[in-house]
Design brief:
3 domains, fumarase, lyase, iron-sulfur, 505 residues
Length: 505
């Protein structure tokens, strides 16, 4: 009988969550670097360069890879010959580990979990509770996988109850383009097939715990139907040309994972859950000898990448830019922003639109300003702001026309594509939408020279801030005429791949 103290699990969970907040798995870094080396799309290559640079900075600075430090999922396999020493339940132990990790004073992590999800949506303040799955298995040890999953990628989860004769491949290829770029490709797609609806979802998520090994599988060949699906989908999804950050390119997925199990004769449940460019997971095993602390990777495992903006970059002063100035900005163009910008996400936009509807004043004048969709991590030490990467812009689409027409807002900055309604509003108001790279939060934060709250302080990380930035890199994603690079880029690269002009391998 192995005796495991409750503090051993608590300390190990806390250590793992701190560790994965700033260290990518080695296999992920290697896979992104390989994709970067063979990428021929300049926009996609630049995006991956920023992801790799950000990753190295986080590894050395011990600060979060992404401002969305995730909702925690913990998977435990508990040996039948294990005895727990302590007075907490298993869930309480895990949640205490989460609490300690997210409130660590040297590396504060953003609390993103809200209670009463269809009501008050009040932040729990410490990122608890975790989503916990456990199995009791033969043995005398406890195996634990700890995952921090960003909301942007989780939001792109898809499920279908297919007919038994339907093609899983066809369904996947139909829904991946619908997922857009809010899940921050390049990443990994986990696919669960079989069981019941809830089990297919669980299989998809559990598949993402496995290491990236698609190239090994390509070398040895498939030995079962799941591996055949992995190979076929890896090839066909990348041939869609979606590319890094949805900008068009050769690599959309770094790997495809598939888990299946028996299902009812009348059903074929299928689920897809993506992992993003902030893939964060760790594993440890408790054997009764004490807590487990993760081993840092060598910095030699991180490629030395430099990101060069080139001579063609457009430098913009946000304090003096005018509506006339943005009219000649071109889709796909790199822009370096300097000056003062506002911030605001879902909660702030909802409050502003409600105030506008009531005819009440906003807490800040937005005339001719740019707003950045971000919920930053709290600063530590002498930081002006913690990691501050973009959030998914489509969540603000329903507010966009009102914001542009009622406040005089000139431009927006966020992650991934905009939907049809937002693009129409941008075109009609001759505004502009700029894209920052998801997965480069710490890198972006270094461009922020000062930060202060101007409105809705009660919203915490969702308050309206004013950032003073210097040379913050962005891409023109929707120009003032309504052309979107997230529509044109993938089409161009898919056509190149289909025509055989380039090879995805």
């Amino acid at each position: 009988m192995t005796v495991i103290r409750q503090d051993d699990l608590i300390d190990s969970v806390a250590d793992a969550l701190q560790f994965i907040s700033y260290y990518h798995p080695k296999d992920f870094i290697q896979a992104v670097h390989q994709a970067y080396e063979r990428e021929q799309s300049k926009a996609a290559k630049d995006a991956m360069a920023q992801i790799l640079i950000n990753s190295r900075m986080c590894a050395t600075g011990h600060r979060p890879i992404c401002q969305d430090t995730g909702i925690v999922s913990v998977f435990l396999k508990i040996g039948m010959n294990v005895q727990w020493q302590g007075d907490l339940s298993l869930e309480e132990m895990v949640n205490e580990g989460v609490r300690r990790a997210y409130k660590h004073p040297d590396n504060v992590l953003r609390a993103s979990v809200l209670a009463d999800p269809d009501g008050a949506r009040k932040n729990t303040g410490d990122n608890t509770p975790a989503m916990i799955t456990y199995k009791v298995v033969p043995g005398d040890k406890v195996e634990v996988h700890v995952v921090a999953k960003g909301g942007g990628s989780e939001a792109k989860t898809k499920f279908a109850m297919l007919n038994p004769s339907d093609s899983v491949v066809d369904w996947v290829l139909s829904v991946v383009p619908q997922m857009g770029a809010g899940w921050c490709p390049p990443g990994i797609l986990g696919i669960g097939i079989g069981g019941t609806a809830d089990k297919a979802m669980a299989l998809a998520k559990e598949s993402l715990l496995d290491p990236i090994d698609i190239h090994d599988l390509q070398a040895r060949g498939a030995s079962n139907r799941s591996e055949e699906l992995r190979l076929e989908l890896f090839d066909k999804v990348n041939k869609l040309g979606i590319g890094a950050q949805g900008l068009g390119g050769l690599t959309t997925v770094l790997d495809i994972k598939v888990k299946d199990m028996p299902t009812h004769a009348a059903n074929k449940p299928v689920a897809i859950i993506p992992n993003c460019a902030a893939t964060r997971l760790a594993k440890f095993v408790l054997d009764g000898s004490g807590p487990v602390h993760q081993t840092p990777p060598s910095l030699d495992d991180y490629p030395e990448i430099s990101w060069e903006v080139g001579d063609s970059v457009r430098r913009v002063n946000l304090d003096t830019v005018t509506k006339e100035d943005v009219q000649d900005w071109q889709p796909g163009e790199t822009v370096l922003l300097s000056g003062k910008m506002l911030t605001g996400r879902d909660a702030a936009h909802k409050k502003m639109v409600d105030l506008i509807a009531k005819g009440e004043p906003l807490p800040v004048d937005m005339q001719g300003r740019f707003i950045y969709y971000v919920g930053p991590v709290d600063p530590v030490g002498d930081e002006v702001v913690g990691p501050a990467g973009p959030t998914t812009a489509t969540r603000m689409d329903k507010f966009t026309r009102t914001m542009l027409e009622k406040t005089g807002l000139l431009g927006m900055i966020g992650k991934a594509e905009r939907g049809p309604a937002a693009i129409e509003a941008i075109r009609d108001n001759k505004a502009v939408y700029l894209m920052a790279v998801g997965g480069s939060a710490y890198l972006v934060s270094k461009a922020i020279k000062s930060s202060k709250v101007l409105g809705f302080p009660e919203l915490g990380m969702e308050a309206i801030y004013e950032f003073d930035v210097k040379d913050m890199p962005v891409t023109v994603a929707v120009d003032s005429k309504g052309e979107s690079v997230h529509q044109t880029g993938p089409k161009i690269w898919q056509a190149k791949i289909e025509e055989g002009v380039i090879d995805v391998k």
